[in-house]
UniProtKB/TrEMBL annotation, chain A:
Keyword DNA-binding: no
Membrane topology: Multi-pass membrane protein
PANTHER family listed in its UniProt record: POTASSIUM VOLTAGE-GATED CHANNEL SUBFAMILY D MEMBER 3 (PTHR11537:SF182), VOLTAGE-GATED POTASSIUM CHANNEL (PTHR11537)
Biased composition (Low complexity): 512-522
Organism: Lates calcarifer (Barramundi)
Name of the featured protein: Potassium voltage-gated channel subfamily D member 3
Pfam family, one: Ion_trans
Primary subcellular site in the record, as a coarse category: membrane
InterPro entries noted in UniProt: BTB/POZ_dom, Ion_trans_dom, K_chnl_volt-dep_Kv, K_chnl_volt-dep_Kv4, K_chnl_volt-dep_Kv4.3, K_chnl_volt-dep_Kv4_C, Shal-type_N, SKP1/BTB/POZ_sf
Residue span of region Disordered: 512-552, 602-635
TrEMBL record, chain B:
Biological process according to GO: regulation of potassium ion transmembrane transport
InterPro entries recorded: EF-hand-dom_pair, EF_Hand_1_Ca_BS, EF_hand_dom, Recoverin
Domain EF-hand residues, every copy: 84-119, 120-155, 168-203
Keywords attached to this entry: Calcium, Lipoprotein, Metal-binding, Myristate, Repeat
SMART domains xrefs: EFh
PANTHER family assigned: CALCIUM BINDING PROTEINS, KV CHANNEL-INTERACTING PROTEIN 2
Role summary: May be involved in the calcium-dependent regulation of rhodopsin phosphorylation. Binds three calcium ions.
Record flagged with keyword Metal-binding: yes
Similarity-based family: Belongs to the recoverin family.
Pfam family, one: EF-hand_8
Protein name stated in the entry: Potassium voltage-gated channel interacting protein 2
GO cellular component, one term: voltage-gated potassium channel complex
Length: 635, 214
């Protein structure tokens, strides 16, 4: 039922009284309206701005949020109003929809914000009134195109697991992604140019030899040109085959316009190779050479402007078709007229209607070669009418095509601009966001350091390091921590991960450290600490994280076994915990051989590394800045 | 809409009814205001609140204050999407337009509604008779009844079960006359109508069906 006229339902029901005396059978029972609600004012508080309306107004559209019982979820008992935490400006048009039955789209509103509001309040955008619908649709389409453009950018992003074929395809499609691709791009461009120039120069008369008159260069230096041609065709063939190989969908690639151009460009050569002996078809062979000029279309891969032109022509197909059709009509009409007008005059060039076509075309396009001229007066009159109308007919569809081209061109420019800005934008966003991503890791370190300090007991340091985290943050971190505990894995940041991957690629070691004495201690140190840490502080972060407030991050310790130079006592105390170490390493199946691998590296200067020993003997284990830490390779 | 200001406005100018009709040539913006709320309460059997609700709905659909036949038909057709309700809406409009000036003002509307919904059974039957009597000459002829019947059946539309036979309205007219026309003179007078209806249980019952519509 039309909900807009719900207010008139009582009237329609009352008017049914006209059927009663006429009816022959009893009527069904009417539904009782038990909840005889008086019409009341409802207050809708939208972000502080209060709107008031009648309940019946909202009830008009029961399939929306405000018209159904869904709004009860937003009811505020204390203030006796419905509170919505949404944009009050957009809400105006939504409420007006209930009042007037027509939904309008305010032009100053952002399209996606408006869409969201509509979705929130359960109103479908299709009921936007005719006055605003077109605008709405246009903006929506624009927005969609923009988003699509952005998505296409993402294809540029290098995915970590691309095989050779995909890399090649990506290199072909976007030459700026790698140096090789760029080189390839320029080389092919160069050869296309060479090929085209060769074709052109071939036909230039090259000066005469002693015995013959002027002949074109192609015939004089046949071998040279043939070699040039062969070379170019070789390059093009190789390129085509490589593209075919790399294409994700070979069938689709073969159907695409560019590949057809490629094929057409190189085919004449091969056909020529095959057919040189046969004399009858040599005529056809000569024609084939014409197709070599299609090589110039290969440039469209290199030039965006050409592509835009082609796309414009494609999108203006209907206008072009109309132009063609109207021209044909006019040509036929005027040719006929001219033919009959000039029939009388002697030595008239207008021998037939088709012959007059040439005159008409030349006149309508205002070329006026002058090879055919009307001589009779009637002919001249009609000739002038013809040229005048020609101007009109041609001038009409051209602006449409021009405006289309302009629109697409500007769109492309905007896309390029966006692409250029995008990198910088993303970089800045990433910097801003990385702060929060690292917050968890940061707080882990701080948390551990705090625990460390608690045990060591230095108050002022503890206070220095305690960062104030909000309740939200701490809850979030706790959540992440629980996840870590559940999966027995840990969060790391990107650099750490990649480094670990690298290291595991170098050498992986399940667990054989006990055999190397120099390792024992260090490993024991690490793990001993880990174990030790586990017991007194069950809520601490997983053992593998060392409280290192350096930029190096926690896991670097895991991937490298550090030996703190000049600290013998540390070994002894932790030897007892050696056997527990394997459990640890088994338990913590971290990313690759975190625990066991190590790389020899020079001392890390800013390493304020309280390398784990801190727990055992508090003060003297506290690392001093600049302690030499030597990472020992597992080998 | 604020109740308070409405009241104030109405009580300050109790018997205001403007009727500013613009020039013939220009777009006629007829703006009609109803008589005071209190007077309407007296004239009809509706309470103040009911009249307020009714007026708000009325004014919302017809901001100019009067309904013309087009709007009337339009509104009514929205309730019967399957069939063609224009004829019946036309007859209704004629019945509502008591002053015969081509438009239904709020008073006409509300007075008729009052009769239909709150009137006595005799009033209701009278109103129904008035609806059927197209030329308002006091009796219902066969032609008039046929027209009415066709208009009612038209509202059903094409897709009915069992499928609509063309003779269905005529048969119904025949049965109606058979029932109502006591002296078989081919017309049904008001007395015959009232008498027959009051004897018929079904009709009596159905007349009371819409008492609680508002």
């Amino acid at each position: 039922m039309a909900t807009g006229v719900a207010a008139w339902l009582p009237f329609a029901r009352a008017a049914a009284i006209g059927w009663m005396p006429v009816a022959n059978c009893p009527m069904p029972v009417a539904p009782r309206d038990n909840s005889k609600r008086q019409d009341e004012l409802i207050i809708l508080n939208v972000s502080g701005r209060r709107f008031q309306t009648w309940r019946t107004t909202l009830d008009r559209y029961p399939d929306t949020l405000l018209g159904s019982s869904e709004k009860d979820f937003f009811y505020n008992e204390e203030t006796k109003e419905y509170f919505f935490d949404r944009d009050p400006d957009a809400f105006r048009s939504i409420l007006n929809f209930y009042r007037t039955g027509k939904l309008h789209y305010p032009r100053h509103e952002c399209i996606s914000a408006y869409d969201e509001e509509l979705t929130f309040f359960g109103i479908i955008p299709e009921i936007i009134g005719d006055c605003c619908y077109e605008e709405y649709k246009d903006r929506k389409r624009e927005n969609l195109e923009r988003l699509q453009d952005d998505q296409e950018e993402n294809k540029d992003m290098k995915m970590p697991n691309m095989n050779f074929r995909e890399t090649m395809w990506r290199a072909f499609e976007n030459p700026h992604t790698s140096t090789m691709a760029l080189v390839f791009y320029y080389v092919t461009g160069f050869f296309i140019a060479i090929s085209v120039i060769t074709n052109v120069v071939e036909t230039v008369p090259c000066g005469s030899t002693a015995n013959q008159k002027d002949m074109p260069c192609g015939e004089r230096y046949t071998v040279a040109f043939f070699c040039m041609d062969t070379a170019c065709v070789m390059i093009f063939t190789v390129e085509y085959l490589m593209r075919l190989f790399a294409a994700p969908s070979r069938y689709r690639f073969m159907r695409s316009v560019m590949s057809i151009i490629d094929v057409v460009a190189i085919l004449p050569y091969y056909i020529g190779l095959v057919m040189t002996n046969n004399e009858d078809v040599s005529g056809a062979f000569v024609t084939l050479r014409v197709f070599r000029v299609f090589r110039i279309f290969k440039f469209s891969r290199h030039s965006q402007g050409l592509r835009i032109l082609g796309y414009t022509l494609k999108s203006c197909a209907s206008e072009l078709g109309f132009l063609l059709f109207s021209l044909t009509m006019a040509i036929i009409i005027f040719a006929t007229v001219m033919f009959y007008a000039e029939k009388g005059s002697s030595s008239s060039k207008f021998t037939s209607i088709p012959a007059s076509f040439w005159y008409t075309i030349v006149t309508m396009t205002t070329l006026g070669y002058g090879d055919m001229v009307p001589k009779t007066i009637a002919g001249k009159i009609f000739g002038s009418i013809c040229s005048l109308s020609g101007v009109l007919v041609i001038a009409l569809p051209v602006p449409v095509i021009v405006s289309n081209f302009s629109r697409i061109y500007h769109q492309n420019q905007r896309a390029d601009k966006r692409r250029a800005q995008k990198k910088a934008r993303l970089a800045r966003i990433r910097i801003a966001k990385s702060g929060s991503a690292n917050a968890f890791l940061q707080s882990k370190r701080n948390g551990l350091l705090n625990e460390l300090l608690e045990l060591t007991g230095t108050e002022e340091d503890e206070q220095k390091l305690t960062k104030s985290t909000s309740l939200l943050e701490s809850q979030h971190h706790h959540l992440l921590h629980c996840l870590e505990k559940t999966t027995a894995h840990e969060f790391v940041d990107e650099q750490m991960y990649e480094q670990n991957c690298l290291e595991t690629a170098l050498q992986t070691y399940p667990s054989r450290s006990p055999s190397i004495s120099s390792h024992d201690s260090s490993v024991g140190t690490c793990c001993g600490r880990r174990v030790k840490r586990n017991t007194p502080l069950p809520n601490a972060s997983t053992p593998s994280a060392h409280p290192i407030p350096t930029h190096q991050g926690p896991l670097q310790e895991l991937s490298a076994i550090h030996i703190q130079c000049g600290d013998p006592p540390s070994h002894s105390t932790s030897r007892s915990n050696l056997n527990l170490k394997t459990d640890d390493s088994g338990r913590i199946n971290c990313k690759g051989g975190r625990i066991t691998t190590a790389i020899i590296s020079l001392p890390t200067p800013p390493a304020l590394t309280p390398d784990g020993d801190g727990l055992h003997g508090p003060p003297q284990r506290r690392p001093s800045a600049g302690t030499n830490i030597v990472k020992v390779s597992a080998l | 809409m604020n109740l308070v200001t409405n009241n104030h406005f109405v009580s300050l100018s109790p018997s205001l009814h403007a009727g500013s009709i613009a020039d013939e040539g220009e777009l006629s913006t007829v703006c009609y205001r109803p008589e005071g709320l209190d007077r309407l309460v007296q004239q009809t059997k509706f309470s103040k609140k009911e009249l307020q609700v009714l007026y708000r709905g009325f004014k919302n659909e017809c901001p100019s204050g009067v309904v013309n036949e087009e709007t009337f038909k339009n509104i009514y057709s929205q309730f019967f999407p399957q069939g063609d309700s224009s004829m019946y809406a036309h007859f209704l409009f004629e019945a509502f337009d008591t002053h015969n000036n081509g438009s239904v003002s709020f008073e006409d509307f509300v007075i008729s509604l009052s009769i239909i919904l709150r009137g006595s059974i005799t009033d209701k039957l009278n109103w129904a008779f008035n609806l059927y009597d197209l030329n308002k000459d006091g009796c219902i002829t066969r032609e008039e009844m046929t027209d009415i019947m066709h208009s009612i059946y038209d509202m059903m539309g094409k897709y009915t079960y069992p499928s609509m036979k063309d003779s269905a309205p005529m048969d119904h007219v025949d049965s109606f006359f058979q029932k109502m026309d006591k002296n078989n003179d081919g017309v049904v007078t008001i007395e015959e109508f009232l008498e027959t209806c009051q004897k018929d249980e079904n009709i009596m019952q159905s007349m009371h069906m819409f008492d609680n519509v508002i």
